[in-house]
Amino acid sequence: MNLKELKQNYERAAKKDPLEIILAGNKKNINEFFETGEDEIREIISYLDKLGLSVGKIRALDFGCGMGRLSQALANHFKEVHGVDISENMISLAKQHNKYDKRCVYHVNSVPDLGIFPDNFFDFIYSNITLQHIPRKYSLNYIKEFLRVIKPKGIIIFQLPSQRVRKEGENNLAFFIKDNLLKILPEAIINLYKKRKWGFTVNMYPIKKTKVISFIRKNNGKVVDIVVNDWGGKRHNSLRYCIMRK
């Protein structure tokens, strides 16, 4: 899947059920939806405090902002927040729900970089349940871009699955087939099935922890902390990386 196909997919999803595509399986009204963002960002700020990390409060980036669930919450802690998403429909919804006027700015970005921002622009970057749905070659490049647009000593937190995990009772052969399905069948065939079933596709693209760590170090980043979380769903081992620009 390339970025053009990814954009078309999320435009369809945003029209059909934007709350579901962002928080799958969590049926909430719009107020509860945004409250989950406030809870999440409060936990992140507390986590940074526990690590003893000093984060500038001027400018933050929410990468994969969707409807602004996390962007709006970040605006409680930063003077200026930028939300970026590949979907014009999502950005339109985010603007409709923007409570912070010019302090919270939303951008459509459908290219494989963050060229809309200069070097050393942000104090803090946060991305959750986004990179996992972007093909690996693009997600790694976005991580490289995070390290370009963050200020020296700035903090980046992003979530990414490292591998698929075996469910209880699943035998070795079944696990192998499912874990390597995209290698066995062309992705286009799998996506066609998903589109017919749901109207859009949601694919997972895990990257092994060792590869992510090596990539960060090669691109002027330092790994501060790695935490296991459940944002990758029941079928993937999900990790939250906290990194610092050297």
Give a description of the structure:
This protein is of the alpha/beta class. It has a single domain, classed as 3-Layer(aba) Sandwich (Rossmann fold). It is 42% helix and 23% strand. It has a seven-stranded mixed beta sheet, with helices on both faces. Strand 1, helix 4 and strand 2 form a beta-alpha-beta unit. The longest helix is centred in the first third of the chain and has 22 residues. It is globular, with a radius of gyration of 18 Å. 33% of the residues are buried. The mean pLDDT is 87.
CATH superfamily: Vaccinia Virus protein VP39
Structural class by secondary-structure content: alpha/beta
Q: What coarse outline follows from CA principal-axis ratios?
A: globular
**What is the number of helices?**
10
Described by strand count, sense and barrel closure, the largest sheet is: 7 strands, mixed
Give me the oligomer status.
single chain
- Provide the succession of SSEs: HHHEHEHEEHEHHHHEE
Name a few traits of the molecule.
single chain, alpha/beta, Rossmann fold, 42% helix, 23% strand
What is the fold's blueprint, element by element?
Layout: H1 3-16, H2 18-22, H3 30-51, E1 59-63, H4 69-74, E2 80-85, H5 88-96, E3 104-108, E4 122-127, H6 136-149, E5 150-164, H7 172-179, H8 181-184, H9 187-198, H10 209-218, E6 221-229, E7 236-245
Parallel strand pairs: 1-2, 1-4, 2-3, 4-5
Antiparallel strand pairs: 5-7, 6-7
